[in-house]
Amino acid sequence: QRRIGRFEAASGGTLLLDEIGDLPLSFQVKLLRVLQERQIERLGSNRPIDVDVRIVSASLRPLEEEIAEGNFRDDLYFRINVFSITIPPLRERPEDIMPIAEHFLERYAGAMGRQVRGFTSEVHEFFRTYSWPGNVRELANAIERSLVVCRGGEIELKHLPLTAAVGGSGDDEGVDDQTLVALEERHVRRVLRRHGFNVTRAAKALGIDRVTLYNKMRKFGIERE
Fold first, then answer.
1. In tens digits, what is the pLDDT along the chain, a chain of 225 residues?
2. Which run of H or E residues covers position 26?
3. Residue 14 pairs with which residues in a beta bridge?
């Protein structure tokens, strides 16, 4: 069965390229050609097809740093960077936190079949004062995980996976009560902060490659501070 690709399907509309900083260099060359020539070729065909697509791209990584480190082509960067929108972190727009939290609560509670009315006042205060280093992804992850243990009523502080990460002053406090995944998340955050969120140095300290570290950052909802 013949299938058309994303560019051909989006012709006349908009195509979102999420996490464009993750594209391997070999694919960046092909993408640049498509953007410049506004033509594609189907696999197995040598006949070019015109496409008219508006491109919106998003990146967790600072692409300027990726260019400096040789991981992103500067010509592709200048081709996609026609108009930039920087989304401020949650800690700079606390008035947005609860509307976003309520949106995710409605979405995940419906999917899980949970009868949850909302959040306690303590959770409201915690959400407002927490720095949210992982921004919206971390907030969504926190609410989804809290619904796993909250069977009804309201979400309380004890239901949140964040309390162990922000509570206590010692590195080992509460370690015995944490899952292996929680310990891994905590360690990744600590190493990233220690190295100023320099992914190259943090990945080397963790003994993993950069791609693996970026995957873990997405998994745990960690964004650069």
1. 778 889 999 999 999 999 999 999 999 999 999 999 999 988 888 899 999 999 999 998 889 989 999 999 999 999 999 999 988 888 889 899 999 999 999 999 998 888 898 999 888 888 888 888 888 888 999 999 899 888 788 998 888 876 544 443 344 444 444 566 777 888 888 888 888 888 888 888 887 888 889 988 988 888 876
2. helix 25-37
3. 54
Taking residue 31's Cβ as centre, other Cβ atoms within 10 Å add up to 19
Distance separating alpha carbons of residues 64 and 80, to the nearest angstrom: 13
Residue 91 structure tokens:
């800690």
Residue whose pair of structure tokens reads 């309520």 in the numeric block: 102
DSSP three-state, residue 50: strand
User: Reduced to 3 DSSP states, what percent helix, strand and coil does the chain have, rounded to the nearest 5?
Assistant: 55, 10, 35
Through-space distance between the first and last CA atoms of the chain, rounded to whole angstroms: 46
